[in-house]
């Protein structure tokens, strides 16, 4: 991964270097800066494609635009063919985005396939264009002061280096976290710090700091009743093969996380088939009390991968927590993140890119909680008046009756909730915000 930073109307242009050093871990290979009277921009780079010539910022051939980029564009070679009239200086996906923006404007976003956050600066008009990928895989935060954009970064910790930033707790984010185990707001746990939402772009007038944010894509759920089970499974496999192949485009070694689950096992299998006789590296993490090492070996051995397995003890686990929390910037209610931290550390010793099965359980209903609608069907046929009566009676499992009365979105929120609203208000008081971050 890489990281980008920026200050708008900088009082001290050297501050961007402090901001960028704060995210050194995102890109140990290189750094780049640009400064003029209206902006100071920086980046840290982890080199994946065109290692020698992909240094950032990359400037357009006419000298008007420059780009800083964090991410990977998997269809950049196809897009490059559509930009044959542009004189490319590199073989990087970064320059393809820049050329596409010059030709198509913000419409380039709908053509990109990948994960990304990028900043394009129009040096003639002193305007910034920042965009975040369709699903928000890559992060981007911005700091506001009196409705003006002051700075932006891939991580909140960059803002802590700015003398004018005074970190204060945002109670609204705390309430959401205690209710839903995460904060769904554009606001963060820090007052005046916001996330650029997924599938959105932001234009900033660097002379004034005024900004406009727009959505460029909306996911559409389209039901196809013509597909049978055989056609559906074939389509899923075809899509996965295509996706894995595109994700393997890199000028550095690519590996795979491997657990005992079907998701990472399928991905590792597809990678090894694509690589053929060349062994891929796979990685598994386990704990003293819980390990999927045996299941992972049952997959890696037939595939012939170069497999590595690490075990994290309880003392090591808790000792790492401060560092993991530091990396996240905000609370994350997912203890498995600590395991991924150790797994990434081990993988980084031998590869720069890994594929994983993260998110597949959400797409394919891999968790038991997703069976709730099926378990609820046995009472869903009852008249509403009877369900209302059942919900008032004390009996084991009456929550099914209560949830059957709820709308779909309310049932989903209930699945994820920890504390109800009244308990959150009792747990967290405004006076607790005095313990500033």
UniProtKB/TrEMBL annotation:
It catalyses: L-aspartate + L-glutamine + ATP + H2O = L-asparagine + L-glutamate + AMP + diphosphate + H(+). Gene3D superfamilies: Glutamine Phosphoribosylpyrophosphate, subunit 1, domain 1, HUPs. The active site is at 2 (for gatase activity). CDD domains: Asn_synthase_B_C, AsnB. InterPro entries: Asn_synth_AEB, Asn_synthase, ASN_synthetase/amidase, AsnB_N, GATase_2_dom, Ntn_hydrolases_N, Rossmann-like_a/b/a_fold. Pathway: Amino-acid biosynthesis; L-asparagine biosynthesis; L-asparagine from L-aspartate (L-Gln route): step 1/1. It comes from the Bacteria. One of its GO terms (cellular component) is cytosol. Residues 2-207 form the Glutamine amidotransferase type-2 domain. One of its GO terms (biological process) is asparagine biosynthetic process. Its EC number is 6.3.5.4. This is asparagine synthase (glutamine-hydrolyzing). It comes from Candidatus Zambryskibacteria bacterium RIFCSPLOWO2_12_FULL_45_14.
């Amino acid at each position: 991964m890489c990281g980008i930073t920026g200050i708008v109307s900088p009082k001290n242009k050297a501050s961007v270097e402090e901001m960028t050093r704060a995210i050194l871990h995102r890109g140990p290979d290189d750094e780049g800066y640009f400064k003029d009277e209206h902006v100071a921009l920086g980046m840290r780079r982890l080199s994946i494609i065109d290692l020698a010539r992909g240094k950032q910022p990359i400037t357009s051939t006419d000298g008007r635009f420059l780009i800083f980029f964090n991410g990977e564009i998997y269809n950049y070679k196809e897009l490059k063919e559509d930009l044959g009239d542009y004189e490319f200086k590199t073989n990087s996906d970064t320059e393809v985005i820049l050329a596409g923006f010059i030709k198509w404007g913000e419409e380039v976003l709908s053509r990109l396939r990948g994960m990304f956050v990028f900043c394009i600066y129009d040096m003639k008009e002193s305007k910034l264009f920042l965009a975040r990928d369709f699903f928000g895989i890559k992060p981007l935060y911005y700091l506001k002061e009196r409705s003006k954009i002051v700075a932006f970064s891939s991580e909140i910790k960059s803002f802590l280096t700015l003398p004018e930033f005074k970190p204060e707790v945002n109670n609204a984010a705390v309430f959401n976290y205690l209710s839903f185990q995460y904060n769904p707001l554009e606001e963060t746990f820090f007052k005046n710090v916001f996330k650029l939402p997924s599938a959105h772009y932001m234009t900033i007038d660097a002379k004034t700091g005024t900004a406009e944010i727009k959505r460029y894509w909306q996911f559409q759920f389209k039901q196809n009743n013509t597909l049978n089970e055989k056609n559906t499974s074939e389509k899923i496999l075809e899509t996965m093969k295509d996706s894995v192949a595109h994700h393997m485009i890199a000028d550095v070694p690519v590996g795979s996380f491997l657990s005992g689950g079907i998701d990472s096992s399928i991905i590792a299998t597809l990678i090894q088939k694509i690589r053929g006789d060349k062994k891929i590296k796979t990685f598994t993490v386990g704990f003293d009390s819980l390990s999927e090492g045996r299941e992972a070996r049952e997959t890696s051995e037939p595939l012939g991968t170069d497999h590595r397995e690490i075990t994290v003890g309880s003392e090591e686990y808790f000792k790492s927590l401060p560092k993991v929390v530091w990396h996240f910037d905000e609370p994350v209610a997912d203890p498995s993140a600590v395991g991924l931290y150790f797994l990434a550390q081990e993988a980084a010793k031998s590869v720069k890119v890994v594929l994983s099965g993260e998110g597949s359980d959400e797409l394919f209903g891999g968790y038991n909680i997703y069976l709730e609608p099926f378990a609820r069907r046995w009472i869903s046929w009852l008249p509403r008046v009877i369900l209302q009566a059942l919900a008032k009676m004390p009996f084991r499992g009456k929550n099914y009756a209560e949830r059957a009365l709820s709308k779909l979105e309310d049932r989903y929120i209930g699945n994820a909730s920890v504390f109800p609203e009244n308990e959150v208000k009792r747990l967290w008081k405004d006076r607790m915000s005095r313990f500033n971050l």
